[in-house]
Every structure is written in C-alpha cells, then in structure tokens.
C-alpha cells in the first residue's frame, strides 16, 4: 500500500500524477524535530508507502521512551534510521544511494549509529550487514519493539539484527508520535501484512501475514485524535476490506464496514478516509456504509493493475476484468457518479501483449479514473513471477506502454476535475497554499485539491467553496 496519494506533500502539486515510477516508492520523508530535552538525537528518513511513514511514528514513539528526540538535521544525529521500501528495484537503488552518502558522513563521525528498518531490511536481512559495512542495525517491520535492546547491543559495539515476522504484532498499544502531520489529518494503521500473494509483489515477504488490529484500540486512537483537534483520519492497510477482528472471548466480531461505521460515528466533524481497497474484497456493505455517512469521504483507491483478464490471472489478482467492472458499477450505483476512483496500473508485466495493453487503456476509459499511480513492471527477487515467469517485455516497450497509460489516465483526470467546476464543495482547510500566502489549500470529499483566497478561514475549518476553474490538477474557487 502504498498510497501517499492522500498526503499533504501532494497538496498543490498535480494530483493527477504526471510522472511514473517516482510516485509512492520514491517519496521520502524526513521526520520533523521534537525538542523535549532528551539526551540523544534520532534522524529518521522514511521511504515507500504510507504504512512506512506511519511505522516511523511508532518507531519514534518507542525511541522517545528510550531517551531520543527526533532531529531534522542529519548533522545533529546520534542515530540515523532509514525506513526502507522494496516495492520496485528503483526504490531500493534510492536507499542504497542514500546509504552511501550517510556512510561518508559516518566516516567523519565515527560515533554515529546507522540502522536500516522496513521492507528492505526484511528482504535482505543480515545480508545487509555484509553488503553495507557501515550499517550497525537491521530491523524488520514487526520487530520495532525490540529496538531499545538492539540499540543497547550496538552501543556495546556489536551489530544487531532482528527481522522476525510476527502473526500478531499490531503495535495497537503504542501511541504514535505524529511526525507526518499538519495537526489536522492523521493516519491510523488498522492492519498489517498481506496474505494475497500477487505474483509481482514483494509485500507479503517483507510484511508477513495479514493481521487486524483490535477495533477498540483503533476507535480509541481516533477519539484521541479528535480531542486533540484532528479533523480527518485515514485508515491504513494493504487490503482494508479484508479487515476482520474478533474479541478474545469470541463475543464480538467487526468487519471493515462495521469498523468504518464505528469511526464515522465518533464525530460528524471527523472525516474518514481509507486505503487500500482490493477489488476482490470490496463489498456492497462497505459502499452502503460510505453512502450512509456524509463524513466518510467519497473516494476509493481501487488498484486494477491491468485491464486484461489473462494478465490479471498471471498476476494472481484473483479477479478478472468483468468482476472489476462490476465493482465499479456497484460504486456508481450505490454512491453515484461523483465518487472518485483511483487505480494503480503495472505496464509491461510478463508476456503482456500489445492487445492486452490496449485493454488496460480501455479499462481506463471505462472507469474514467480521477487519479492513477502507474508503474512499469520491476521484477522482485523471490516473488512468484520472478520464479515462474519471464520478465520478457523490453524496457523501452514497458516505458512506452506506461506513458500511454499515464496519458490516457490524465485525460480522464482532467475531465473529472472539469466536471466539478461551477459547483460548491465542502473543503477541509489543511493549510496555506504553496503558491501564495493569501491562498489556502484543502481537499474536497473526492480528495481533489481545492485552492481559494483565505478570507477569515483557518487551518482545520470546513468551508464551502464555489469552484470557478481548474488547472487540471487542482480546483480554484472562492469561499461562499
Ligand atoms: N496493496 C495494494 C498495493 C500495494 S503496492 C494493492 O493490492 O493494491 C503499491 C503498488 O505498487 C501496487 O498496486 C502495484 O501497482 C505497484 N507494484 C507492486 N509491485 C510492483 C512491481 N514488482 N513492479 C511494479 N509495480 C509494482
Ligand atoms: Fe502486494 Fe497484492 Fe498484497 Fe497489494 S494485495 S500488497 S499488491 S500482494
Ligand atoms: Fe510499503 Fe514499500 Fe514495504 S510500498 S509495504 S514500504 S515494500
């Protein structure tokens, strides 16, 4: 999952992405400073998806208890952690390049500790220590509670590794230090891991088995956020529609639709978003729950990956094109034309023919996506596809098909923006527009960016904005 599409970094930037393989996985965050007078300083940089950004908040919380403040300056750090992503080869290359920069910094500061967390740590395990000699610490996504012990080992002059995956770790009791937040919108992890085994995907190997977090702890975290002034939560998981939690005594069962409802009921002033929905699992019950509550945003990230049924089968997505089209029709039937839908597409998957690629384009025409995150196929070691299928589409062909996918998708994104002109939108103000001090920026329910003169409105307010024009990637208007 990978969807930074809901984050502030994308405010005011083309929401209908122009670029291809440098979207989610290449996004990088440096955690901002906390200054509470702690003894040691942690510098943490996060790559990849929203789950990783959210995990860095958990890591910071664990290390805060251990006497670490965070710093934004690498030069001030006692401990540098890179929370890494393996989703495509390029994501790993980015981290390797960053490590070599950090290593030259370490040569000048021999006391500096360097650790690698996240998916690349899990994929490469202790091999990392052999390949990157200056790394002291390798910790997988389910082992963050062990960080204090591991750091003590490193302080004692050892190298330390913990990449054990867990069947039940959800960090449910750890209150994240909100590092990625503007004080208005927050991310709440509701599950971890993935059991789907899509043939191209490394996530099941790096994140382990799917498990759902205690529903009460999720609702409590959202309540706490509301009491701190937050106005929007995004419930996160690789496959939120397969959320299922049963209480220890077996008396209480909560599915995703029910969880959504519980969170929506906390306050009508709290917007609720979620990501990612798997087309095989999204139910009419979820769609009806979305329809029932105004504060559940009308936006669904529903990655198709391909428009061709044979390719979908090879990808082990477990749905075919007619199934996907039917789910889109259900969204339109239950939530209407205004509900935004976005996708991820992979171009040039093993043996994809030109005709099959054309079917991806025709699916884009069928759905008329509001947004898309599109990639060319990158073989990942150990996955089903790497073991069983030939990565046989030449890079130029992959890139050309990808560009066609992006172009087609942008055509529809622009049209979807254009149809919003002339209407009044309820917008949650998230801050100043990047373009001007005098303009504010926020999003409508459909996750489209809306920019308008600030008047008396403030961050965290809901305002009604009459949209008068569009740049094709944002809506422009005035408060009414
Ligand atoms: N759980 C989400 C996806 C998480 S990964 C889902 O099932 O939809 C985010 C996106 O990265 C995927 O949707 C896919 O489009 C892309 N991706 C994953 N593995 C890839 C690979 N090997 N090459 C190219 N893109 C890949
Ligand atoms: Fe990867 Fe598929 Fe799981 Fe998404 S659902 S994380 S693409 S294996
Ligand atoms: Fe996320 Fe990348 Fe891991 S997309 S789950 S950080 S492989």
TrEMBL record:
Its cofactor is [4Fe-4S] cluster. The keyword Coiled coil does not apply. Residues 40-156 form the MTTase N-terminal domain. GO terms for molecular function: 4 iron, 4 sulfur cluster binding; metal ion binding; tRNA-2-methylthio-N(6)-dimethylallyladenosine(37) synthase activity. It is found in: Cytoplasm. It catalyses: N(6)-dimethylallyladenosine(37) in tRNA + (sulfur carrier)-SH + AH2 + 2 S-adenosyl-L-methionine = 2-methylsulfanyl-N(6)-dimethylallyladenosine(37) in tRNA + (sulfur carrier)-H + 5'-deoxyadenosine + L-methionine + A + S-adenosyl-L-homocysteine + 2 H(+). [4Fe-4S] cluster 2 binds at residues 194, 198, 201. Its EC number is 2.8.4.3. It is an enzyme of class 2 (transferase). Residues 180-416 form the Radical SAM core domain. One of its GO terms (cellular component) is cytosol. SUPFAM superfamilies: Radical SAM enzymes (SSF102114). CDD domains: Radical_SAM (cd01335). [4Fe-4S] cluster 1 binds at residues 49, 85, 119. InterPro entries: Elp3/MiaA/NifB-like_rSAM, Methylthiotransferase, Methylthiotransferase_CS, Methylthiotransferase_N, Methylthiotransferase_N_sf, MiaB_methiolase, rSAM, rSAM_horseshoe. Keywords: 4Fe-4S, Cytoplasm, Iron, Iron-sulfur, Metal-binding, S-adenosyl-L-methionine, Transferase, tRNA processing. Residues 418-480 form the TRAM domain. It comes from the Bacteria. Binds 2 [4Fe-4S] clusters. One cluster is coordinated with 3 cysteines and an exchangeable S-adenosyl-L-methionine. PANTHER family: CDK5 REGULATORY SUBUNIT-ASSOCIATED PROTEIN 1 (PTHR43020), MITOCHONDRIAL TRNA METHYLTHIOTRANSFERASE CDK5RAP1 (PTHR43020:SF2). Catalyzes the methylthiolation of N6-(dimethylallyl)adenosine (i(6)A), leading to the formation of 2-methylthio-N6-(dimethylallyl)adenosine (ms(2)i(6)A) at position 37 in tRNAs that read codons beginning with uridine. Belongs to the methylthiotransferase family. MiaB subfamily. NCBIfam families: miaB-methiolase (TIGR01574), MiaB/RimO family radical SAM methylthiotransferase (TIGR00089). Monomer. This is tRNA-2-methylthio-N(6)-dimethylallyladenosine synthase. The lineage of its organism: Bacteria, Pseudomonadati, Bacteroidota, Cytophagia, Cytophagales.
